[in-house]
Every structure is written in structure tokens, then in C-alpha cells.
Write the C-alpha cells for this entry.
Amino acid sequence: MTLIKRELEDKIKKFIERREIIGIRGARQTGKTTLLKMIEEQIEGNKVFIDLYLPEYRKTFEENPLDFVKRFKNEGKLFLFLDEVQKAKDAGEKLKIIYDNFSDIKIFISGSSSLELKTKILPELVGRLFLFSLYTFNFYEFLLARDESLAKILKEKRESLRRFLEDEDEISPPSFQEEIIGYWKEYVVFGGYPEIVKAKNNEERITILKNIFNLYIEKDITGFFGITDTSKFEELVKSLSFNISKILSISSLSSELKIGYENVEKYLEILKHTYVIHLVRPFHKNLVTEIRKSPKVYFLDIGLRNCSIDNFMEFDKRVDKRELSENFVLRELITNFDDWKINFWRTTGKAEVDFVIGKNEKIVPIEVKLSGEKLGKGFYSFLKAYEPEKALIASLDTFEKKRVNNTLIQRIPIYYF
């Protein structure tokens, strides 16, 4: 299978000529090593790729980082790629030594756990590191792997949505919708791990997902974090899976699962830092009527979520269609609208809007309504309270717009995000 271009690659390329270290972090098996190698292949000149899993290289890097560099450096600039850098002891300190002693070295690093990077590496590299997160394939990357021509069409639709939100352009109407929705329904069941995208059938996809989940428990949870009672941890993951898009209550989880409050907090931190879940905070300006603290929980890969509850039923037969769809929108917003702030809105009277994205004083409410359902009172309450210029409704089969007072409401296919 041809290597699929990752959208993060273009973002990273903008910083290659700068001196700062480039770091790529993300969950296991999201393609960090592959992305590093794709970047390496496009660079001409003196370059070297080192896997710090290898004891010989790791030992020298730890004991004498300057000699480590001299081993590979010739005349001129060196591009140094260090994969799984967190495996090296005191890696942040060693990288700082290299950075401060060689002005003509460009360093690229990768790491699997943001918690490991945060504790072992980041404190030493303040002002010396640009850090990027690599997630599993978003829907565009997934479609690029399956049908390149459809992916190009999807990209045009996504770009038209961005222009619509940032200026006055019209959103491009859908085309080949039935085909794209067919792929979308597969994506929201099996997710976007690269190996899943390559798999030839559902049986293979299920086996791969279960292996990824089991490896996560064995390597990260048992190995790095030292949690011996993994059954309670897995129960928590399962409970969160059943409650995607819901308000998160730590005390309720603690009571329901018979896990201490502090342990629930600890497990949630681990899940966030290993790229399993994402918490969305509430949008609020009215301190009296709007909730301000409790987040909603989502999974960063929907396939992993479905794996944790062992439910791979096809989309049209599922009872959790709406939750999966809302989770999909959040997942796409994270990677495609990373320059926008993402929140949800809910009042103490339980009026709610699924998402509110904001940028430069502009706010846009987003609701997920799969089959043209009527908008709830909560949505109109938000429009009345904040009078946004534009609002979006994500659906499967509707493309239309209407104006309510000063707000232009646009219904779009859910995959446009």
C-alpha cells in the first residue's frame, strides 16, 4: 500500500528551516515513525534516522550526547531524527546539550506518551522545541487511502466550509454524497488507525483493534504507569465509552465503579495523555446560568471506543448513532480547526448546544442532527443570547440554509468538518 500523506506533514514543513527542535507526539501506532521517515526522505544532505529503542545507540546518547552527534556529523548541516526519544534516560537534558553545542543541527524527535514527554523532556527544552500532536487518520486521510479522487472532492468541501466561517464565501454543495457517506459509516465504526485503514475486511479490522487495545493496556498502563489492577482501569474506559458526549462526573464514576476518587482522576489523566480521550470544556459568559466546570468526554479514535465495548455493528443498525456522530465532529474539529477554541454550551436549566467554536471574538454554534430533525429550544436560546453571525447544523442528508434574526444557519453534511 502506498504511504498516505498526513496533513500534519505540511504544518511541520513550515518550521524545518528554523533552528528549534521539532517534536511529534501521539498514541501508539498512529504513524509517528512513518511520518518522521517521510519527512526525512524529502530532505537532501546529511541526515540520519536513529531508533532509540536500540540499546547501543541509546547508551551512547545517554552517556555522551556530543560524541553521539560527532559519530554522524560531517561538514555542513545535520538533520538528526530520533524516534521514541522518551526511551532514553534524561532525554531532555541530552537534547538540550546537543542543541546548545551545535548550531548547525536540526533535530526531530517522536514520543508515544505526552505524559512522558511532559515530565522527562519538555522542562529542559523550553524555547527550544515546537511540539505537534499526530492522531489517527482523520476522515480526509482515511478517504485518501481508499479513494483519492473522492478525497480531493472532500477537501474542496472542507476548504469551502473554512472560507464560509472566516469570510462571506458560500459553502460548496455536496456531490457523490452516497459514496462518501458509505465510507463515513465505515470510519465511525472502525476508526482511523493506519493498520485499520490498510485492512482488507472487518474481521481483520476487529482483530487489529483488539490487539492495539490490549497492547495499550500491557505496555502503557501496566508497563509505564505501573497499574496492576487493570480490570478497574478497563471498567473505567468501558464506562466512558458508553457515555461519550455526556457530562463527565468524577464522583459518579467513582461511586459506580467502586474506584477511589483520586484514582479516577489519575486514570482520566492517563487516558488524556495517552491520546485515548479528549475532554471538552463548557463555554460560558453568564456566570449565573451557565455551567462552568464539568466537561464532556469523547474518544480520539472512534474505533478504539467501539473496541472497548466490543460493538462493531454497522452504523445503520446501531442505537448510538447520534453519539458516534457527535464524537466524529469533535474528532474532526480537533485536527481541522486546531486554531479555533472548542467548547460546548449548557445552562443550569439544561439548554444545550453540542459545540461552540471560537476564533478572534467570532463564535459559531454547531449542532449534530442526522436526519433533518428540528432544532431544540437550547439552540435558539443560544442564538438569542449571543447573536452569532453564523451557525452550523451537521446532518447526513440535508444541505440548506436559512436566516433566524441575525444568524445565518447552514445545514451541511457531517463529513464537511
Q: What stands out?
A: Residues 152 and 405 are 35 Å apart (CA to CA). The first helix runs from residue 7 to 13.
